[in-house]
Amino acid sequence: MKTYFAATALLLSLVAPWTGDAMAADRPMEHRTYVATVGQDGVQRIEMVGGGYYYDPDHIVVKVDVPVEITIHKEKGFVPHDIAMDAPEAGMEFKVDLETSPTVIRFTPTKTGTFPFACTKKLLFLKSHKDHGMKGVVEVVP
Fold this sequence. Notes:
By secondary structure, the protein is mainly beta. 13% of the residues lie in helices and 39% in strands.
């Protein structure tokens, strides 16, 4: 019986750092909106960071039919994260694992509207990262 309780305590101590509550202190308290501007080369550029069950910014506003480059990296830590968007009807479909070194995501939005993105990771029986709040939207405007 003591072995069972010791094993359970050990398991909980290993899993606790991977839960949302352990990382909640890292999450920005407010949602942050970023309105992209078109550079001289005709590309809208956004820099993002993901980790601790958040994206910053988590609301991106871009113009329709103008190329977009999102440069994203993961904050330091062991918890794996990604960013995924499934809106092929609007020219935005990607799934990228986040690394501490920057990754560039390129697309050209072809339809106005608001389109969600989220982290698709989930640890065993725990809530998904999306359910912990790791999600956001790209708002495409005329």
